[in-house]
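Continuing the batch. This is chain 6 of the set; chains 1 through 5 are on the previous pages. Same settings as before, nothing changed between runs. Recording input and output for traceability.
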Amino acid sequence: MKIIKVADLKVGTKFTKPLYLDRDNVFLNANVPISEGDIARLNKFGFQEVMTAGEIIEPGSSSSTTGLDDSPLSDPDKQHLKNIHFNILKHKENFVRVYKEAFDTVQAFYRKVAEDKITDIGPIRYAAEEIVDHVKSNPNFSFLLLNYHLDGYYLYNQVVHSTFYSLLIAQGLDYSRPRMLDLAYSCLLADVGMAKIPAYISEKNATLNEEEYKVIKKHPLFGYQVLTKTYKIKNSLATIALQHHENYDGTGYPQKLRKQEIEEAACIYTIADNFSALTSNRPWRRRFQPYDAMKTMISVTMNKFDLNLLRIFLNKISMYPVGSYVELSDGSIGQVLDANNAKMLRPSLVIVRDSDGFVPKDGSNYINLVLENQIYITKAIEYNITNS
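Output for chain 6:
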């Protein structure tokens, strides 16, 4: 790569390959003109140089480097959405790796706890670091997360999903990296108490009876005791394990805490855990549509949550959650690409099937519904797509 001084960048200049802040972080995608705002941001944050493996694109020429259709879009808003989509797909392979490694690490640790065997807790910390680094480098990770699950015991998917979603809220609160790391570490350990619940109860494929439910309600205490007594981790890091089933209105368990009695980290995880649970299949029920899950949380069960944190979560993933599928009034099908906070029911989409049933190929498959008054969402749908 060659180094370019920020002072030498000119507004309107485009390159055949992306501009990087460093060898891992893209600042501007290929074939996208540099704006005054781009240069201002670089100066604001103290960057004196950027790097690229590309060349300057002369006026009238074009380039194809993104892996999507790289023909320039005449609409700047559509180009912006295309850039978001490109960055999501660029991080997909790494997301899958980080998710799988976290799943395997959680599974291995929880199984050792179930067997009353002492094991190294270090890999959990490493998995937390990997997740935090991925979240910070890929702000649109929830697009990939919503529909990604590994085969196996649901609990491990639940824990990993909830950890990712918790960090989404942490980003909205401007947590520092060390604070995000502590949160991720605590989240991955949050449900370790379930390892102490007899399998005939924890893995039951039907509704629990009253006595079984009483046993389940002990798992926060079991988890807290394992973490603080056996593994000697700080109380502050074991709090989520103890409090993640406490509700903001005082109806939760095991201590029936309410409002400010519950630590912020536990309030964050409770929101993430509920959304993850509702949007996942269980042996006794099918998953909620992501839209229905979000609607339930902001209406039926909203008193369970810190409303400020719930609002941040909603702003991050949209009323029609990022990654979910919707049917539009023209018969086309879109996947939610980005939230529009000002108008929650009109997110930005990538169209995966047009109104004639075909996959768009001409770069017209990005749409911001805020700017399209003639088209609207008719319903949320389940949709399976390959090679997305």
